[in-house]
Amino acid sequence: MQKVKLKKFTEFSKTILPNEAKYLVSQHQFTDNEKTEILNQLVNGALTNNAKGHFDASIDKRKYSYVKNWVSRKLESVDVDETAKWILDLNKKILLDAIVSSEEKAFLNFLANYKKAGYNFQIVYELAQEYKPYLLIRLRYKDHEIVANFLENYSDDYEKAKNIQQKLYNATTEITSQYTQKDSETIYWEPWLLEVFKDEDVDGKNRYMAFITLAFMYTNYGESTKLKLLFDEIDLFFSKGEMYSRRLLSNYYASRVLMHSKENELDLAEYYAYLSIRQYNNDTLMYVNNLVAILLKNKKPKEANNVLDTYHQLYKESHNYHQKIGFCSYRIRALNQVGQNKLAEEVASNFLKQNKKEVLKHRWHHFFTSYFIVLIAQEKYTELLKIASKFDITSKEKEHKSGHSYVPNISWSISLSRYMEGQINSSKLLEDIKAPMEGLKPTKSQKTVLVQVIDTLSNNLPEAFLKLKSYL
Fold first, then answer.
1. Among residues 47, 78, 109, which one ends one of the domains?
2. CB 129 within 8 A of CB 151
3. 46, 98, 124, 386: which could form a disulfide with 93 (CB 3.0–4.6 Å)?
C-alpha cells in the first residue's frame, strides 16, 4: 500500500511548477522534521526539473497526505482564478435568489476583512454593488451596512481602476495596431505602463494587463533586454503568490518560450515550453505547437513526434483552425525529420483535401512550407509545381515577403523544382534564390531557420544552396 501512496505523491509532485515551489517554501512553518523533508524534496524536484522524485518510503504515509493537502490549500488560497470563480458563482446566485446563508456569511466576512485592491477587485466591487440592494429590500440593515461601508471605502479605488482599465485599452489598441500596420510609434506609453505595473496600490488585474501590454510593445521594438527584465520581475511576483494562477503561469511560460526562441536560446525555450503545457487550458494546443517548434529547432524530432502523439486527440477535437493547421504542419515536419516522408505526404495531402478553405484563409504559408519540404525530400518536383500553380502560391509568396518574419523557403523550393524540371537554367536558379535575400536582415532565430532550410535543400542541389551560407 505504501508504494502505491508514494507513487501517487510522486505523480502529484510532478504537477508543481517552479514558481509555485518557491512560494510554498517561503510559506511553510512545519515543526515536524519529516514533513519539512517531504516538502523540501517536492520543492527541489520542481526547481531542478527532476521528475523522478526520491521520497522516503519509511516516513508515515499520513504525513505525505498532510503535505499534499497543505500544498493544495495553500496554492488555492492565492489562486486568482479560484477567487474569480467564487465571486462569479456568488453573483449568479444573488441574481437568481439562490444564495444560501453560509455563502452570504463567507462573502460578508470577506468584505469586512478586505485590505487592499487585489487581482479581482473590480468584480468584487461590482458584486457588492449588486448585493447592496438585495440586502436592503430584505431589511437586513446590519449586513447592508457592511457592504455599504466597503463600497464607500473603496469607491476611489474603483474609479481609479476603471480609469486605468480604459487607458490600458487605449494603449493596447495602439500597440497591437503598430504590430499589424507598422504605421505608428507607441514607445511613449512605456513610462505610464511601467508605473501601473509597479504600483502596489493598483488592482492586480490592471497591473497584469500593463505587464502583458508592455511585453507586446517590447516585442514590437525588439527590446529583448527590457523584455527579459520585465519577465524576471513578474517571475518574482508569481513566486510571492501575487497575480498567481496556473493559467497565468502557463501564459507567462509560453511568452518566455517566444522570447528565448527569438534570441536563439533554445534550451531555455524548451524548458519553458514543457512548463507551459503542464496545466491544461484553452491555449494548450498553441503551447504544444510552440513546444514542437522548439524541439524541431533543437533537432529532437523523435521527442516532437511523441508530443504530437500525446496531444493528437486534443488536435482532433479543436475548432481553432489556426492552431490545427499549425499542429498538422509540425506533424509533417516532424515525420520528415525522422525519414517518414511518404507518411508525411499522406498527412499533408489528406489535410489539404479536407481543410482547403481553412488552410488558404488562415496559415497557407506555414502549411505549404511543410508540404513542400516533404515533396522536395522525395524529389517530387512536378507534383510541387502543380500544387504551387493550383493554389497560386507564387503570388501569395510575393505578398508574404513584406512580413516581419519572412523566410524564403517556399520561394526557394519552387525555384529548385523549376530548375530540376528543366524550366530554368543554373544562372536563373542562382538569381532566383539570391533575390529573396535582398534587403533581408534576419534575426538570430531567423538565421537558424534559414540555415536549416538551406541544409535541407542542399541535399537536392548542394552547389547552389551552399553558396547562400556566406550571405548569413
1. 78
2. yes
3. 98
CA distance 434 to 471: 9
All three cell numbers of 122: 473590480
Domain boundary (120, 153, 186) is at 153
Dist. CA 413–CA 394, nearest whole Å: 11
Residue 94 lies in a domain: yes
Is 216 within the bounds of a domain?
Answer: no
Cell numbers placing 221: 521594438
The grid coordinates of residue 92 equal 449568479
Give the type of residue at 75. L
For the segment 333-346, what is each residue's pLDDT rounded down to a tens digit?
999 999 999 999 99
Does residue 337 contact residue 353 with C-beta atoms inside 8 Å?
A: no
DSSP state of 126: H
- CA–CA separation, 28 and 363 (whole Å): 49
> Which residue's entry shows cell 523533508?
37
Do residues 17 and 26 touch, judged by C-beta distance below 8 A?
A: no
**8 Å CB contact between 30 and 255:** no
Is 406 inside a domain boundary?
A: yes
Listed in sequence order, the residues at least 6 apart from 287 whose beta carbon sits closer than 8 Å to its beta carbon are 250, 253, 254, 257, 273, 276, 277
Which three cell numbers, joined as nine digits, stand for 419?
Answer: 530548375
**305: nearest Cα among 317, 295, 315:** 295
Q: In which domain, by residue range, is 398 found?
A: 388-472
Tally of domains within the chain: 3
Say whether both 121 and 65 belong to one domain.
no
Q: What is the pTM of this model?
A: 0.86
pLDDT tens track for 228-267? 999 999 999 999 999 999 999 999 999 999 899 988 899 9
Residue carrying the nine cell digits 494546443: 285
Asked if residue 363 belongs to a domain, the reply is no
Q: Are residues 7 and 70 in the same domain?
A: yes
Rounded to whole angstroms, the Cα distance separating 412 from 29 reads 63
Are 419 and 426 within 8 A, CB to CB?
yes
